[in-house]
Amino acid sequence: MSADASVAVTGLDPAQAAARLRDEGPNELGLSQRRTLRDIAWEVLREPMFGLLLGAGAIYLAMGVAREALILLGFVFIIMGITALQERRTDKALDALRDLSSPRALVLRGGQANRIPGREVVREDVLLLAEGDRVPADGVLLQAHELATDESMLTGESEAVPKQAGTGRVFAGTLVVSGQGLVRVDAVGRQTEMGRIGMSLQTITLAASPLRDEVARLTRRLVVVAVALSVGLMALFWMLRGGWLEAMLAGITLAMGLLPQEFAVIMIVFFALAARRLATQQVLTRRLNSIETLGQTSVLCVDKTGTLTRNRMAVAALAIDGEELAIESLPPGGLPEAFHALLEVALLASETEPHDPMEQALHRLGADHLAGTEHLHPEWTLAREYELSPELLAMSHLWRSATEPHDVVASKGAPEAVAALCHLPDAQCERIMAHAARLADRGLRVLGVARATHRNDLAWPGVQHDFAFEWVGLVGFADPLRPEVPEAMAQCRRAGIRVVMITGDHPLTARAIALQAGIVGDRVLTGEDLLRLDARSLAQEVAAVNIFARVRPQQKLALIEALKANGEVVAMTGDGVNDAPALKAAHIGIAMGQRGTDVAREAASLVLLQDDFASIVQAIKAGRRTFANLRQAMVYTLAVHVPIVGLAMLPVLFGLPLVLAPLHIAFLELIIDPACSLVFEAEDGDPDLMRQPPRRTGAALLTGALVTQSLLQGGLVTAMVVGVYAALLDFGMPGGMAGTAAFVALVSANAALILPSRSDRTDWRSLGARLTPVSRWVLAGTLLALLAVTAIPWLARNFGFLPLTPLQWLAALAVGLAMVPLLHLSKVLLASPAGHVATMAPP
Question: What are residue 117's DSSP bridge partners?
Answer without folding.
Answer: 104
